[in-house]
Amino acid sequence: xxxxxxxxxxxxxxxxxxxxxxxxxxxxxxxxxxxxxxxxxxxxxxxxxxxxxxxxxxxxxxxxxxxxxxxxxxxxxxxxxxxxxxxxxxxxxxxxxxxxxxxxxxxxxxxxxxxxxxxxxxxxxxxxxxxxxxxxxxxxxxxxxxxxxxxxxxxxxxxxxxxxxxxxxxxxxxxxxxxxxxxxxxxxxxxxxxxxxxxxxxxxxxxxxxxxxxxxxxxxxxxxxxxxxxxxxxxxxxxxxxxxxxxxxxxxxxxxxxxxxxxxxxxxxxxxxxxxxxxxxxxxxxxxxxxxxxxxxxxxxxxxxxxxxxxxxxxxxxxxxxxxxxxxxxxxx
Length: 333
Hints:
Elements: H1 5-22, H2 24-27, E1 47-50, E2 56-65, E3 71-91, E4 96-105, H3 123-159, H4 161-175, H5 179-190, H6 194-220, H7 224-231, H8 236-247, H9 249-272, H10 284-291, H11 300-326
Antiparallel strand pairs: 1-2, 2-3, 3-4
């Protein structure tokens, strides 16, 4: 894995988003729902490397909107400071409490590094908090698919017969729907909201795991080591858990990495269609949907959420490809 450029690139992308999600309030200069109507559609603010007297550092000017919608840029420069005290925040269910932020402006202005949206909310802060939402959706959806799909595929492939016939017909019905369409139907049935999105995307992943595991079990259940274990008197459950499932883990691990990307894309698609998170939650798909209305006047509102979705999905896809190559026993070492 460490010799693979794809794996390293995927690890870097995923690692960055995991760190952002883990320390979102620290990285965010402001609350993701804090509005500032004087800062609506403010573009990414320019950082200057020289102060008013030519002193080195990071400096920024005030940028705001007039009541008529025109952009105003102030003349006075304000310094950017790192590790500043600001608005208190609570994270990880109360395990982390602090008022420390990564950066801030020493002055009576707001600094929008990536610009502001239609309500003057800081896009960087919303992206950071949205990373936690998107990664949580992907992780929980993949967990649901694993916990249900793997046992179904394992029992179906090992025992066969009527159980295999019934379960595989159900799986085929679920696979006959495109994944995003199945998720839309489930969300429309369960209702909108992040919890229902996680459940819907997880249910959409169940037939993928069930069919994948069943195929692996069918290739393994008649192998010599399985027959030897059966001849020694091992029970079926022990054979499945000790001999078959460990040998089927490689495709499951690879599929889980790829399924994370699929789950995040599905969640973003549902949010884009208005079936996922509800305003003012900083979910990337919802941010992208709101930003498309302002592409002509403020393209940054949709650009940055779109890039975040693209890079996190790309990271998991690159990692999945690298895992597939690394775990392939037929690959040259």
